[in-house]
């Protein structure tokens, strides 16, 4: 049975323990949320010593199940003040799964000003002073650690933003090339890590080969069927593989739901220039790789190598959300500029969705003009420097709106909205409003049924059907996030019945339990219930499950749509609790 | 019957109307809160067109009842996002009462960038363009308006902070000398006024002599008894009259409850230098007036003239809260400096409590050192300039804490705490935690019973009795604020039974109704119930009725006390709702 690694930052002590009863059978998001639910005061200060920060690989981590290497990071969020789980790809989850660690829990806080690093291997776990890493960016930190720990380890780090305790600070996870390009971005969990005084975790898998599996034969057979489903579905074998998540730019722009210039329009006249097709074209022209997996065992490979004008590797492919946040939402139609900003965000350690929104709101306030590339770069660099303006921006879109008196501020529970306007994809509006996480597209990705016609079809402009759609997706997602699977597996899982069956069988085979499709659902519900309960105790109930007023009042071009799902309908999302 | 003046800022139209049924019998805070409760969506954007801003004189305004000239300003607060009423002295309420206006309601919002002024007299009400006032401070604005409207009018204005829509922006009310020294400070109502595009209200009483009174003889007799009670009670005839509210500095310091250097101690080693006694001494030495009333009919006269080193008038006496905020809380022991900062705050138009806390939190973050006078002045001047740092500070202590990652941030519902540490005056802690207004000492001034032994005695360190004390005070205060009486009349009202009786009789005589002491209580309860109900709909319930975590965890020197009133006790405050 995998173990829990408790790290008492106040006393600089580590301890390995058995999983407490209430964490048994849980992994990834489920383990994070259960731990926070059971052990953290919902009214604690998110950057205080009483908050905890959890890193948990999913239930299938460290196996040869395809795309099973997402790592969940959980805490009470300094951005939303709700419970929070943000997950990312990269290598760390697979390594932790192989070592047999179900979760790392940071408790307490180091003395102010002190900085530590945590080394974890099959043989030992130790907390070491790391004051020499102070003020370093993610790339600088990882470069230094690589020299010390070699090329087989993975890193979990924070940049300057995390040290500054900014609410947009992310937690970076290194990819197969040990680059800090995968981020548990949302909710400011990098600030929680910073508040504990932990700069980096080094996960060294050593000789550990695979997480233990009770019924290996059953697992192997199911894993094969699951991989086949991923290879059979067009989204996970062609669309994402060739164009990355940016394939959505043209699709969502065509749907009139691509938020442009701080959510003032649903169409961006320069969308084509920042589309997945353009990304593929520019990469091919510069002789870069268009299909790159961020973790061992990924067969979707939605990432790619963004090459500079001289054909040298510059950064990972910016994702759809990132391209949108800095592109359409800031009025910028230039992929080179977006890749540059994305790399700076990875380096400083900030969530690109929150930051892009923050700067779009600042542009609306007149700090810079929409479309001003140099201006946007200047602003993001302020964040890294920690100037007053940089700190405002790094505190997220909500704070920017408050400080500069902007009326159109797209946040729910103070978390900025992702790249789908809820007025023209109303299922997403329901998810944004009601998710336990604040505005989060990954919490219940209604774009599938509203736009892509994956897993059925619900008219994106209709009122009817959106709540049921979002609820079902939120439950399924909580289970997928607990398994540690990349969310993109949901596309085949929604369309190919055997894909879900295969996942269930892998979970059963690994733990030696019986679960069934019903059990998978129950897992999702159990996780959501705990998250909801925590939020209620933290003071977040139905009045907070709402979109900002302007989505109901301002019509979105080109469809002149408004968000009109009644409040009473929104309040039915959690009717299973 | 007094009328309602509705001002549609979107259409630049004014209309006089009868009071709607739900506002009848209400004035001041009661009228403000009832209007917001009945007409404003609790989830609206506080700086959006759907919020409303109300100015209401109390029920006794415009009569010869002593100290009846408080003006209530009500809205949904941009600082707390709860309902909000802030009241102030000065001349405007008396003038409005005489004119027969029960309330001015600002609705909608002017086109962005446009600025207006509202002129109100017994003959007309008109909204006029006032773009020439753009960017002016309160003193500059008033100076310019005096030239246009003469010396008999009163002004309600905002400074730059209100135009910037900052959450610490106040609404300034001119005093008897037409100086903008009286502020409805709390909750950022100046930002709401700014968001509407209104820079100034000019209230011209013209020939209007007195508000109509149904039973003049009864009123006159009761008013006389009430005035006598004020003259008989030592607090309202000696303490406040000679030393101002600053008489509390030595008292609260002695009690070990004077929050020092951002609530890290309850004693300030330089308290004596900034005490009421020192204020009297320095003023006497410089040949200033130590007893100045801010409104016609004030017989307490807690204010005074702060003279500069050459004996020239410099500013009004800074109040206890202001002296504390910039003195002990910022580690500054210099009255000249505090008076200077106070005048800047009046001029820019910001709440001194919120700003003093904001800068103390910034000092804790290391932006300036505690005790740095020039540094504090520099910071407050940044607010007036609207620099990024100034905007952070002007957004209040909560935002400063968030942006700079400070862990000790003394706010409830995002409103900064006043000058009584809740660990050593626990009754105040109950009021801070549960008030419908966020942390607000005036909402239920338990210092009376906890420290001054006015209206009984409850041990300030005891757990028992504080909830009942705070509840009773919160109810009585809501009624007093509705009458438009200066809250200091509560001292005699708590100790001299005839003082309450006289107030009830004046209210009865003025309106020609029968009310009784019971009716006065019911008025208070009715107002509180509406405010509470609004807040629940806005998403504020029991989990928000809590002090920040550090008050429970960090012991306050010199008594090493913590705030230990159980949450379940706090939840009993509203058991009458």
SSE blueprint:
The structure is a homodimer of 577-residue chains.
Chain A: E1 3-8, E2 13-17, H1 28-39, E3 53-57, E4 71-76, E5 83-88, H2 92-99, E6 101-107, E7 116-120, E8 125-129, H3 138-149, E9 154-157, H4 160-163, E10 171-173, E11 182-184, H5 189-196, E12 198-203, H6 216-232, H7 234-243, H8 248-254, H9 276-285, E13 305-307, E14 313-316, H10 320-326, H11 335-348, H12 352-364, H13 373-385, H14 388-394, H15 397-404, E15 411-412, E16 415-416, H16 426-434, H17 447-452, H18 466-483, H19 490-495, H20 497-511, H21 516-537, H22 550-553, H23 567-570
Parallel strand pairs in A: 1-6, 7-12
Antiparallel strand pairs in A: 1-2, 3-4, 3-6, 4-5, 7-8, 9-10, 9-12, 10-11, 13-14, 15-16
Features:
homodimer; 577 residues; alpha+beta; Aldehyde Ferredoxin Oxidoreductase,  A, domain 1; Aldehyde Ferredoxin Oxidoreductase Protein, subunit A, domain 2; six-stranded mixed sheet; 23 helices; 41% helix
| Relative helix content of chain A | 40-55%
Supply the CATH architecture of the domain at 3-203 in chain A.
4-Layer Sandwich
| Oligomeric status | homodimer
Overall 3D shape of chain A: globular
CATH superfamily of the domain at 3-203 in chain A, by name, is Aldehyde ferredoxin oxidoreductase, N-terminal domain
Detailed description of the structure:
The structure is a homodimer of 577-residue chains. Chain A is of the alpha+beta class. Chain A is built from 23 helices and 16 strands. Chain A has helices at 28-39, 92-99, 138-149, 160-163, 189-196, 216-232, 234-243, 248-254, 276-285, 320-326, 335-348, 352-364, 373-385, 388-394, 397-404, 426-434, 447-452, 466-483, 490-495, 497-511, 516-537, 550-553, 567-570; strands spanning 3-8, 13-17, 53-57, 71-76, 83-88, 101-107, 116-120, 125-129, 154-157, 171-173, 182-184, 198-203, 305-307, 313-316, 411-412, 415-416. In chain A, strands 2-1-6-3-4-5 form a six-stranded mixed sheet, with helices on both faces. A six-stranded mixed sheet of chain A has the order 8-7-12-9-10-11. In chain A, strand 10 and strand 11 form a beta hairpin. The radius of gyration of chain A is 21 Å and the shape is globular. Chain A starts with a strand and ends in a 7-residue tail after the last helix. Chain A binds chain B through residues 41-45, 47-48, 50, 78, 164-167, 191, 194-195, 387-389, 391-392, 395, 399, 402-405, 407, 536-541, 543-544, 546, 548-550, 553, and chain B through 41-45, 47-48, 50, 78, 164-167, 191, 194-195, 387-389, 391-392, 395, 399, 402-405, 407, 536-541, 543-544, 546, 548-550, 553.
């Amino acid at each position: 049975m995998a173990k829990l690694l408790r790290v008492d930052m106040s006393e600089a002590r580590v301890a390995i323990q058995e999983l407490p009863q209430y964490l048994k059978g849980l992994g990834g998001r489920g383990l994070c949320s259960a731990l926070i639910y059971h052990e953290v005061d919902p009214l604690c200060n998110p950057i205080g010593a009483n908050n905890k920060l959890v890193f948990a690989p999913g239930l299938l981590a460290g196996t040869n199940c395809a795309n099973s290497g997402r790592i969940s990071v959980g805490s009470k969020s300094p951005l939303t003040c709700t419970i929070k789980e943000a997950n990312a790809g990269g290598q760390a989850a697979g390594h932790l799964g192989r070592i047999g660690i179900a979760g790392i829990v940071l408790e307490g806080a180091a003395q102010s000003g002190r900085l530590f690093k945590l080394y974890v291997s099959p043989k030992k776990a130790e907390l070491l002073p790391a004051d020499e890493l102070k003020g370093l960016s993610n790339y600088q930190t990882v470069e230094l650690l690589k020299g010390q720990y070699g090329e087989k380890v993975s890193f979990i780090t924070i940049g300057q933003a995390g040290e500054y305790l900014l609410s947009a600070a992310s937690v970076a996870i290194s990819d197969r090339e040990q680059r800090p390009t995968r981020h548990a971005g949302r909710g400011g969990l990098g600030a929680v890590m910073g508040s504990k005084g932990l700069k980096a975790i080094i996960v060294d898998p050593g000789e550990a080969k695979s997480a233990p599996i009770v019924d290996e034969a059953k697992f192997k057979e199911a894993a094969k069927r699951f991989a086949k489903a991923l290879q059979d579905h067009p989204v996970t074998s062609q669309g994402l593989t060739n164009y990355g998540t940016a394939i959505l730019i043209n699709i969502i722009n065509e749907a009139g739901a691509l938020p442009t210039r701080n959510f003032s329009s649903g169409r961006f006249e320069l969308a084509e220039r920042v589309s997945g097709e353009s990304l593929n074209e520019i990469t091919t022209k510069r002789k870069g790789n268009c299909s790159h997996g961020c973790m061992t065992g990924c067969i979707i490979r939605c990432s790619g190598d963004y090459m500079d004008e001289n054909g040298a590797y510059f950064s990972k492919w910016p994702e759809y959300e990132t391209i949108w946040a800095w592109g359409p939402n800031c009025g910028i139609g230039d992929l080179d500029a977006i890749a540059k900003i994305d790399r700076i965000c990875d380096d400083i350690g900030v969530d690109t969705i929150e930051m892009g929104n923050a700067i779009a709101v600042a542009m609306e306030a007149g700090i810079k003009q929409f479309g001003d590339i140099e201006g946007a770069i200047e602003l993001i660099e302020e964040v890294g420097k920690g100037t007053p303006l940089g700190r405002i921006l790094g505190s997220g879109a909500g704070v920017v709106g408050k400080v500069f008196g902007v009326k159109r501020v797209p946040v729910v529970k103070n978390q900025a909205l992702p790249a789908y306007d809820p007025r023209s994809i109303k299922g997403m509006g329901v998810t944004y409003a009601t998710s336990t996480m604040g505005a989060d597209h990954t919490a219940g990705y209604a774009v599938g049924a509203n736009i892509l016609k994956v897993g059925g079809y619900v008219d994106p402009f209709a009122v009817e059907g959106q709540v049921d759609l979002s609820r079902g997706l939120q439950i399924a997602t909580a289970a997928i996030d607990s398994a540690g699977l990349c969310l993109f597996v949901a596309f085949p899982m929604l369309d190919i019945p055997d894909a879900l069956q295969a996942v269930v069988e892998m979970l059963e085979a690994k733990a030696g339990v019986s679960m069934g499709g019903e059990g998978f659902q129950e897992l999702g519900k159990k996780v959501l219930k705990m998250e909801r309960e925590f939020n209620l105790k933290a003071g977040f109930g139905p009045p907070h499950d709402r979109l900002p007023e302007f989505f109901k009042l301002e019509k979105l071009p080109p469809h002149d749509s408004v968000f009109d799902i009644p409040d009473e309908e929104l309040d039915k999302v959690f009717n299973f609790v």
